[in-house]
Amino acid sequence: MTTTLVKMVSITKRFPGVTANSGINFELRPGEIHALLGENGAGKSTLMNILTGLYMPDEGEIYIRGARVKLTSPRDAIEAGIGMVHQHFRLVQTFSVAENVIMGSGDQGFFLNMQEVEDKLARFSGEYGINVMPGSKIWQLSVGEQQRVEIVKMLYRGTDIMILDEPTAVLTPQESRELFATLRRMADMGKGIIVISHKIQEVLENADRITVLRDGRYVDTFSGKDTDSRKLTMAMVDRDISYGQNISSKPKDDFILCLKGLTVLGDRGQKALKSLDLNLRKGEILGIAGVAGNGQKELAEVIAGLREEAAGEIEVRGERFTGRSARRMIDAGISLIPEDRLGTGLVGSLNILENSILKKYRSGDISTGWFISWKRVREYAHRLVEKFDVKTTGVEAPVRLLSGGNLQKLLLAREISNDPDVIVAVYPVRGLDVGAIEFVRNTLLRQRENGKGIILISEELEELFMLSDRVAVMHEGEIMGILDREEIDLERVGRMMAGEREEGSHERTAVR
Amino acid sequence: MSGLPLGRNRVITLEKRGGFSRGVALLVPVFSIVCAVIGGGLFLLAAGYDPVEIYLTMLSGVFGSAYGLSETVVKTIPLLLCGLAVSVAFRMQLWNIGAEGQLYMGAVAASWVALFHGEGSPVVVIALMLLAGAAAGALWGLIPAIPRALFKVNETITTLMLNYVAILFSDYLVYGPWKDPKGMNFPLSAVFPDSAILPHFGDTRIHLGLVFGLIAAVLLYIVLWHTKWGYEVRVIGESPVAARYAGMNIARNILLVMALSGGLAGIAGMAEVSGITQRLQPNLSSGYGYTAIIVAWLGRLNPFAIIGVSFLMAGLLVGGYNMQMSGLPAAIVSILQGAILFFILGGDILTKYRIRIKNTRGIEVAE
Amino acid sequence: MNDPLVVVILSTAVIAGTPLLFAALGEILAERSGVLNLGVEGMMLVGAVSGYIATLLTGNHWAGVLAALAAGGMMGMIHAFISVSLRGNQVVSGLALTIFGTGLSAFLGKSYIGQPVPDVFKPVTVPLFSQIPYLGKIFFEHDALVYLSYIFVIVIWVLVFKTRWGLNLRAVGENPAAADSMGIPVYLTRYISVVSGGMLAGLGGAYLSLAYAPTWLENMTAGRGWIAVALVIFAVWHPWKALVGSYIFGGVDALGFHIQAMGEKALFLKDVSPFFLQMLPYILTIIVLILVTSETKKRRVGTPAALGLPYDREER
């Protein structure tokens, strides 16, 4: 019997321009939940992509159950019993659960017998206490259910080294607890579980051991019992972070944006927003909590005029907006910081000059008649880059070459300099490093001080609780309740995220 | 697995470049042509021909005489106009391969003006023909653009299908109602009146269409890089999602761009009938609309580069005619054209990736 | 011999639809794996000329079929190499393939133009089946390649929807990253489907030069490769529907011919210029494409999600 499932020794992986992993050591034992802790960009995902055969390390050795291995493709890793549940699920939406589970496996003969697979799968998921319906199509499932499919898929393959990448990002607090109970059960059956996370509390509560990475380097491995959040924070971040905590001003009383009975259809024709009411004040950050996929995207899009409402209306500064277009909402002073920075917010192959005027090119500031004055654009872009400290090799370089943090800075710079009244920020810090996160959050707070109304959609409850004046919780296209800053409570928010409505929550009917 | 095995323990792998290599981007088309010529030569050799003889025949066809050179310029005209037409559509990811049909419709409309309203001041008649040709081409481009804008109907197929329809329609006219009664039953329309014929340069067949093409290239450049509309077109082409986010009207721009694209090809058709054939006849175009695809891609969709490339491709066509006269296989021209495109597409990867030969034992060696 | 006119027309529809069917089946395979191939026209032409030449040289039409398969497969290989390995633009690569194939086929066939095929595929009546009233005449009095196409429809249908290989193929076309993470070889799968798709397109071309026409003429496919691409959309990437679609288009193709042949009996249609009758299949393609696309958009079915997108493992 070996005492280690996985041993990775001084792993180094370089990408053009960055060393993502530099001499990292890692060890996994059977029966343990081992957390891999670190900020975004610390190198956690790269290390795990090496373990799953997606990347090849430039240096270093990997041992599985004591034997030296070379993992050159995902197939090698699968054969070694390694499976990973990615943050973005690797599921085929149009396939059934059973089809997703068996694809790529040699389990079936040449001809498929789906009934047999479904039966086997039903028995199998019973064994682990994971509830999935083998016949349902993936697109019909909730995010939590899809995650369970991913886990079953790995177990079915005989995985005994299971990696989960930020598994709780898409779950309610209650669902997260359930997930860890399942993982614990699996560990008790002798499997090794690796959980990639950047949430210190979650890791402390659930992990047996915790390995911390920082800037692509190995810091230390702690025992879950013998450590505390202060030690972990110190290991994870080597500097103090401060957010403009002096939230002195109070939101003004007048509403700047009112959504009344808004019903919106999603991409599949389902009701993504159901008769939703929401009001935003000047000088306020209104946080939107909820599991991803509960209508947040549609909410942001309908406000920005990118999606049509099926019923209801939107008022900006008391003026009704119907038959809207993105253009009209931009002119009305509504700014969207989209989730997808490179692709929606910025055009990768165009340069900084061209990206800086994406919403301004029609304005007389930079154009005369039909023509764009590139001289004035240049001045304007230089001002943005300087004011927001965007690190770049020049304004003529395609923005694709900027780092995530600098992309977001450029995007924020452009949006804020248009002086909007309402800012809708969708997952604005996702994938950013610590410094950039701090910059984004402080920028939003400064805009709040300037009297803008801000809707902040985020999956990080901590972030919402820290920045918001009020937090509204969304579930299946409805607002389950709105809590004031003082009332915020993780349990309550969690219950609402799971679909429990708070009858007492005020304001729902305040302005009808 | 993404690597190509190369003997023992060695693989060729592709590694992403940190940036975009402008130098490589410029070199790729040049190398593509060189590689295609070499590849074509080997092919000819294998087929039992003498590639040197064939290439020399082609070259002498173009550069061997003033006539060859002027013929090359003559062929440059439709290629330039169609190349510009295709490039502006491609820039917006509209795969308009219907330039051929748009050219024919432009030719038909211009012929209609010439045949039925052709008497009068040449300036007026030619202006009317130009207008009619552009309008007919634009309309022919709009037919597939409307379903594309409304329902995302695949425009590659619809534009191509319309080529056949346009050519059959033009054939119908010259075999039927427009057939010249004095033409001994040949499928030809009557000859245009002098007022409907484009002026020529000196004794050559080079006509005013060349000026149309050059002006179009300059205008297109100005529109794309210096106007608000051109900016919209470029943003939509690079990222429709971002364009929508920025409040641009994509459907309207699809219609406008396809109309512009069709209009340019229509002008090419007008120039052909008014400058060269001086009547409507079958087989007006020797596949200019298709060669234009290569012109546009090889010119990287850049209007000025397209001027040069269309001359080059015209040379290839003229060289092909010369081969035909000498009884050599002229089809090698299309083979070369296709091969050039293949090499560019293949070579493009070098602008984004760097090729590295890796020792697969490297990992173990690094112990 | 006195069959009702409808039966005669339907029977010709099957023959005229067969080259479309082969090509559409091939394109279904390629597109199911996520590779858009607009080079079908070029592949068909090369297949047609290769089959024709091989038959001329050997005197055996089966040698022609083999040559067409090989030639189509090689054309598919070019497309696969550029669009899969080199991650080039699939649309432009397909167009290049068509231009290249047009030239190559003209080059190869130049010295043989107009020569009669020594060993044409001739109709073989299938014993029992041909006795079925009407249907027997429509489906079972054709040449061997038509019967082969029936078999291919069934085989491909089973392969794509009922086997492990088909499941993996569809996974690659829907979500290559997911397929890759499950150990399915994405590149290999795409190569196999594009190359076999090319072979089928080549066979479709050979049907024209060895059975339908049967001779070699430059550009003899006359846009059938493109119609086949449109048929795949019409068929929602499904072999059975491709069969139905092919025969509808084949029928329209044949209709023009029948109307001309009918002379005075064609009533008002006799005055329609043959040029307009020849336009029918092309116009029909456009109309059908518009109807099908606007309809499938509503029902959200069909298109493999990764169609046209090159896969690069380290991209995500």
**Subunit arrangement of the protein:** heterotrimer
Query: Low-confidence stretches of chain B at least 5 residues in length (pLDDT < 50)?
Result: 1-8, 360-367
Shape of chain C: globular
E-strand count of chain C = 2
What would you report as the Rg of chain B, rounded to the nearest angstrom?
A: 23 Å
Enumerate the spans of chain C where pLDDT stays under 50 for 5 or more consecutive residues. none
Residue fraction in strands of chain B: under 5%
Account of the protein in words:
The complex is a heterotrimer of chains A (512), B (367) and C (316). Chain A is of the alpha/beta class. Chain A has four domains: 1-81 and 159-239, Rossmann fold (3-Layer(aba) Sandwich); 93-158, no CATH class; 253-333 and 420-512, 3-Layer(aba) Sandwich (Rossmann fold); 347-413, no CATH class. Chain A has helices at 44-51, 74-79, 97-102, 114-128, 143-156, 173-188, 200-206, 229-236, 296-303, 326-331, 352-356, 374-387, 404-417, 434-449, 461-467, 490-497, and strands at residues 6-15, 18-28, 33-37, 59-64, 67-69, 82-85, 161-165, 192-197, 209-214, 217-223, 255-265, 271-281, 284-289, 309-316, 319-321, 334-337, 367-368, 371-372, 422-426, 453-457, 470-475, 478-484. Chain A is globular. Chain B has a domain at 76-303. A three-stranded antiparallel β-sheet of chain B has the order 1-2-3. Chain B is globular and about 70 Å long. Chain C is mostly helical. Chain C has one domain (18-238, 302-315). Chain C is 70% helix and 1% strand. Chain C has a two-stranded antiparallel sheet. Chain C is globular.
